[in-house]
Design a protein that fits this description.
About 60% of the residues lie in helices and about 0% in strands. The chain has one domain. By secondary structure, it is mainly α. The longest helix is centred in the N-terminal third of the chain and has 32 residues. The protein contains five helices and no strands. Pfam families: Rer1 (PF03248).
Length: about 200
């Protein structure tokens, strides 16, 4: 007779946990399938950014949410542009950035990989979009000051990051396919056929 009353809530909790686990697996499945489709992922995120911008524009509010979103994206961008092992902070025996022309080539490994960068930005815009439906997040502020402060912060941060890139000679982007050229023939050399 003791277990009759306590059986209902535990069964409901187990069923809820099972359903949540199934939804989580399904979400992870589609997330994994989207991994190789970087262009389409970024197009979708750009559409989400556009919808968020329209929402903020038409509501004429939530500037503090947008400012927080901008700071978070700036933080993610720094991780995306930074090497995994920073030669300034951690001397290591593992792969490091080449600092001289005679150093061997080592591939650039990001601190924040592209997929995680995309996923974090997409989640941030989703959360910010949901926050625009709750008036408690609409703190009245003078938005031009926030925009100016964010632009100054962005400029100073990017300047520091670019100086770091120049100092340690790395480019965090792959620009086109690398081509390798063979040795150029010496001028005035005779042709192999003896012409």
């Amino acid at each position: 007779m003791e277990g009759v009353g306590g059986d209902g809530p535990s069964t409901a909790a187990a069923a809820l946990n099972q359903r949540r686990h199934e939804v989580s697996k399904l979400f992870q499945y589609y997330l994994d399938k989207s991994t190789p489709h970087a262009l389409y992922r970024w197009i979708g995120t750009s559409l989400l950014m556009f919808v968020y911008a329209l929402r903020v524009y038409y509501v004429h509010g939530f500037y503090i949410v947008s400012y927080g979103l901008g700071i978070y994206i700036l933080n993610l961008l720094i991780g995306f542009l930074s090497p995994l092992v920073d030669p300034e902070l951690e001397p290591s025996d593992g792969p490091m950035l080449p600092t001289k022309g005679s150093d061997e080539f080592k591939p650039f490994i990001r601190r924040l990989p592209e997929f995680k960068f995309w996923y974090a930005i997409t989640k941030a815009f989703c959360v910010a979009f949901v926050m625009t439906f709750f008036s408690m997040f609409d703190v009245p502020v003078f938005w031009p000051i926030l925009l100016f402060y964010w632009l100054v912060l962005f400029t100073l941060t990017m300047k520091r990051q670019i100086m770091h890139m120049i100092k340690y000679k790395y480019i965090p982007f792959n620009i086109g396919k690398q081509t390798y050229k063979g040795k150029k023939p010496a001028t005035g050399a005779s042709s192999p056929r003896g012409d």
